[in-house]
From TrEMBL:
The lineage of its organism: Eukaryota, Metazoa, Chordata, Craniata, Vertebrata. Pfam families: MMR_HSR1_Xtn, TGS. Keywords: GTP-binding, Nucleotide-binding. Coiled coil: none annotated. One of its GO terms (molecular function) is GTPase activity. It comes from Pundamilia nyererei. Residues 248-323 form the TGS domain. This is Developmentally-regulated GTP-binding protein 2.
């Protein structure tokens, strides 16, 4: 029996198993096996032979956005974007999505719920967790001493016995485990596997001109969702605003002594960037020659304010760097 058949069999077993106190250990084991087989499916083949054609997108620019969707949902009409459509190359395309900063899921508003569920399941199966944060669980395998299990909060979904069964499925018999929050068995498995990617996702419903106002309102009120119409150019500006927020990017403008700020060429940084980060972006040796900086903008108490390398910049600040 191949890996795909084993995965299908386990998924069928999970779907027909009623979830209750008596079956929680059985379900936990099934989920651990499922995660293990899915990880094997993503591993490259070790068999001898000619190497396959690689597939990646060269890293460039200030951020990477993965546009994922079924054919004919409006991926290619996003203005100004150089896009890649990977028809029939699912695993390779998903591998590129794992390196993105944000996932934009393009959905057809006329069948958005069905498409969304299928794509979420596909991304979940390859270790991409959308709009979630990494579980607050400390896990460290050891060479001996058995299992050390502790929790700082009451656990309602995991027990020491279930944790032990899951670890045994991965051939781990000695480890330290500390739950700092009430997590599910699936989240604990994610911590064990360790190759999960947690990233923000924006659900974009296109073709809203083909559905009722009530349905548009329902979709627009869903978390992390934007409704647009590429054909009628509706709400595209708002989509760009939301995407900018999800990427957590800020614009920093530079100024030379005695000259006006250059508002035509901004430095794009991540939110929370310091003056030192700006120096490294301009030139790798600038931080070592740094004396002080003058900053105008919302990050200062008055303008201009003399600051050091640790000063945190904000959106649309202006900076003038003085060297030694």
């Amino acid at each position: 029996m191949g890996i795909l058949e084993k995965i299908a069999e386990i998924e069928k077993e999970i779907s027909r198993t009623q979830k209750n106190k008596a079956t929680e250990y059985h379900l936990g084991l099934l989920k651990a096996k499922l995660a293990k087989y899915r990880a094997q499916l993503l591993e490259p083949s070790k068999s001898a032979g000619a190497k396959g054609e690689g597939f990646d997108v060269m890293k460039s620019g200030d951020a990477r956005v993965a546009l994922i969707g079924f054919p004919s949902v409006g991926k290619v009409c996003q203005h100004g974007g150089r896009l890649l459509i990977g028809k029939g190359r699912g695993r390779q395309v998903i591998a590129v999505a794992r390196t993105a900063d944000v996932v934009v899921m393009m959905l057809d508003a006329t069948k958005g719920d069905v498409q969304r569920a299928l794509l979420e399941k596909e991304l979940e199966s390859v270790g991409i967790r959308l709009n979630r944060i990494k579980p607050n669980i400390y896990f460290k395998p050891k060479k001996g001493g058995g299992l050390s299990f502790n929790s700082t909060v009451p656990l309602t979904q995991c027990s020491e016995k279930l944790v032990q069964l899951i670890l045994h499925e991965y051939k781990i018999f000695n480890a330290e485990v500390l739950f700092r929050e009430d997590c599910t068995p699936d989240e604990f498995i994610d911590v064990i596997v360790g190759n999960r990617v947690y990233m923000p996702c924006l659900y974009v419903y296109n073709k809203v001109d083909q559905i009722s106002i009530e349905e548009v309102d329902r979709l627009a009120r869903r978390p992390h969702s934007v409704v647009i119409s590429c054909g009628m150019k509706l709400n595209l500006d708002y989509l760009l605003e939301r995407l900018w927020e999800y990427l957590a990017l800020i614009c920093i403008y530079t100024k030379k002594r005695g000259e006006r700020p250059d508002f035509n060429d901004a430095i794009i940084m991540r939110r929370g960037a310091s003056v030192e980060h700006v120096c490294h972006r301009i030139h790798r040796t600038l931080a070592s020659q740094f004396k002080y900086a003058l900053v105008w903008g919302t990050s200062t108490k008055y303008s201009p304010q003399r600051v050091g390398l640790t000063h945190i910049m904000e959106h649309e600040d202006v900076i003038q760097i003085v060297k030694k």
